[in-house]
Queue: 2 jobs
Job 1
Amino acid sequence: MESVVTLARLAEEISREAGEMLTAKRPARPEVLATKSSPTDVVTALDRASERLIRDRIREIRPGDAILGEEGGLTGDGRVRWIVDPIDGTVNFLYGLPEWAVSIAVEVDGEVVAGVVNAVPRGEVFTAARGEGAWLAGERLRCNTGVPLDRALIATGFGYGTGRRKVQAEVLAHVLPRVRDIRRGGSAALDLCSVAAGRVDGFYERGPEYWDYAAGGLIAVEAGARIGGLRGRPYSPELTICAAPGLFAELHELLVPLDPERDA
Ligand code: IPD
Ligand code: CA
């Protein structure tokens, strides 16, 4: 079995290749190819092309590995599984906003050991390998610590369904008066990298799928953050909270009575 660092380097190389293809091929106005969970949950041809490129490279180099991708689902089995979001922040990509990324994580025996989030338009590639830290441009990342809730800049996001959004707006109405401010960037993977880099203090969201947070989650944890769900449960699409341990506890305490795992 390769080292976690080797797997992270390979994920980085593949994410860079996908990023180059996306930069070269992105038309001024990408076309919506299909919608998924709701009319606003879109797929462009380049989401699919990016996942295809990533899957082809993984298969060429490591034909025995499993791959779980946002567009193509699960293929193969094996102790090593790649978790791929070919474009996280598809709506930003569609509108020409720069907040989107290619996200690739690698699991061994069900544990994420390597993660790469390539913020293509920004030219920033966040990487982490389990036990080896989180990195950006040769600098080790450290999340902000010692920030009380009322001084915390908190990133969050909203789902695509109206019933979910109603509850998310209700929860947000209670959170907003208690924190410094809220940011809605449009890519959960990059929100988690922002926690890692100290560009926001914390993050919470109901809904992101495993491919949205697998790589960014490792990057945040390797930068010293805690990531989890409500009441000691692991983070999941039900709810993901991420912040330095002290702020995590305060944010968790604020969220629990708001019952944020509901949909209307
Ligand atoms: C979405 C983004 C967004 C988050 C949504 C995700 P997509 O992923 O990560 O920030 O709020 O929950 O679905 O659709 O752009 O790949
Ligand atoms: Ca995504």
Job 2
Amino acid sequence: MSKALDGVRILDFTHVQSGPTCTQLLAWFGADVIKVERAGAGDITREQLRDIPDVDSLYFTMLNHNKRSITIDTKNPEGKQVLETLIQKCDVLVENFAPGALDRMGFTWERIQELNPRMIVASVKGFGPGPYEDCKVYENVAQCAGGAASTTGFDDGPPVVTGAQIGDSGTGLHLALGIVTALYQRTQTGRGQKVLAAMQDGVLNLCRVKLRDQQRLERTGTMKEYPQYPNGQFGEAVPRAGNASGGGQPGWILKCKGWETDPNAYIYFITQAPVWAKICNVIGKEEWATDPDYVTPAARLPRLKDIFAEIERWTMTKTKFEAMQILNKYDIPCGPILSMKEIAEEPSLRKTGTIVEVDHPTRGRYLTVGNPIKLSDSPTEVKRSPLLGEHTDEVMTELGYSPEQISALRTAGAI
Ligand code: COA
């Protein structure tokens, strides 16, 4: 079966996490992704957080599936020429170097346009134009600068970063959408364009509801669905809301049976208004279904803490899975707090290809997260990440270099 992005060639000049997330997705959709790395070293993540000596790390293998790897020293004049040939043959150049690195290499937007006016140049940067545009940025810096950290955690504690890599992988996702959109526009204009996804912007986009709340707070001085209401104080900025749901349906994380020893024996419980009567029945508080102090969402708001304490008395008598089973029967929205161990072992995620086992020649078998986006006409087949420079000869040959030229370039240290 053909793939959605068959025929699209990507010059993948990305490293670490944000850029590789983007190009891995494009590869899963069928693009030919040629990852350019420095000979001898490669993407720094190949050797970061290694669990097996001298073997590509899981950090690298899990972000670089379905790609080909070619080594080029792009600071070597002959290596530069190889990169120029690649630019002429590819549709998209994706990069996430520190600001200015591509220009310093000699590949300005103007130069790339000269070489290939159809080329789309897609970049992840930490910040967009402004005071911080020259800064190098990693995940947690973006989480802090994009509004996630100041709004995550409990009110009486410091800002907290989240385990979800919304700065890196989140921005990679944004960039991938920008690229396919630019490819679509190119079918009409015939021209390439620049695509920029700044990590601060990506995080802020994912924190959109918190900017909503900032304005609500400024207008009304309070936010009734926040745990600070009605007894706590609101300041000038959106406070950290603990585990409050952030939407119009109050929710909280509650202990389940076994919480004393299992750090993940918890459930997320939403007191959705339409099922309030069912909640009351399940937890044995039938009288709340008609009591004017509890019957409407507005009446419940100032009592949420006590309500969740009462529900928790019930959830603590069940494991999170038993509670799920019972609550789902009544369409009460809830979710178990799953550990990574439980997720890794979950058969349904294996079945859909969201968790995949991959074979690797030096690492052996490992688990990875497959493509979370499923296309019915373009199914994803997850293939292992390339070894450093594994496809240099193959790609060079496709670019028209003879075996002698390849050998000479290798001797010159250009590839
Ligand atoms: N041949 C020769 N030189 C190469 C090369 C190659 N194949 N590939 C990269 N380089 C060079 C670059 O030209 C650059 O050289 P320069 O600084 O002399 O211009 C250098 O390698 C390293 O680039 P840089 O991006 O500065 O790496 P870093 O390890 O110092 O910084 C980041 C890493 C992630 C902080 C930085 O790249 C960055 O801020 N990126 C943008 C934001 C981002 O994506 N962050 C999230 C990463 S998950």
